[in-house]
Prior knowledge:
Elements: E1 4-9, H1 18-29, E2 37-38, E3 46-47, E4 51-58, E5 65-72, E6 90-92, E7 99-101, H2 111-115, E8 122-124, E9 129-131, H3 137-140, H4 153-157, E10 163-167, H5 174-182, E11 198-200, H6 228-232, H7 235-242
Parallel strand pairs: 1-11
Antiparallel strand pairs: 1-10, 2-3, 4-5, 6-7, 8-9
Pfam families: Fer4_11
Domain 4Fe-4S ferredoxin-type: 4-34, 63-95, 97-126
Protein name: Sulfite dehydrogenase subunit B
Amino acid sequence: MTQMALVIDLNVCVGCHACVTSCKEWNTSGEAGSLSDLRPYDADPSGTFFNRVQTFEAGEFPLADTIHFPKSCLHCEDPPCVPVCPTGASYKRKEDGLVLVDFDRCIGCKYCSWACPYGARELDEARKEMTKCTLCADRIHNETLPERDRKPACVLACPTSARLFGDIHDPESVVSKAIRERGGYQLMPEWGTRPANHYLPRQKTTACGSGACSCGSTTEGAADVVPAAEFEHGLVDLASMATRI
């Protein structure tokens, strides 16, 4: 079965939020819109976003670094949000493996949000419906678009090509090759949800403090700036905090 997914390269994400804004623009004007923004300039803003970028400070001087960590629905192969939905609004599409929401059936009960261990579901306060990343399902199969544009809006907007898109069940796809060759990993695999989205781990830090430095110097025995396990620790709390922004 086809399983479309994102692979995000944590080495080159610069935290510019182009993925966030392009996602918001496309989905507000697409099948999933409109996505509400309540009190955007007040002290207590609230809005609906399918994609968010969380930023971490990691390490100690002189090996300190800033890590930008994009996160959205992971389109799990065994999504816990689907069986708990009392109306069948949440479902996994067979032809491409995407986890989607039928807004005509959604009653905003939040069961899917409670079941998701990654905090990837959000309640649109204006519509009283649960929303999430669709991987631009209304775009990737749109034959009226040039083939090069049949990708999620976030992938097309990324200025550093940190986001890859493809079928992880196809061993020759760009995402499968990246996972295989660069040690791509899933978030919290112990939950048994089999997340489709993967992350490419950070490179080892060099003596001058940058994993991408071209000076050729290295620090003997230096560890990854932020190991996968450290990202996963406390991720649920961070995710739930993000949904309240």
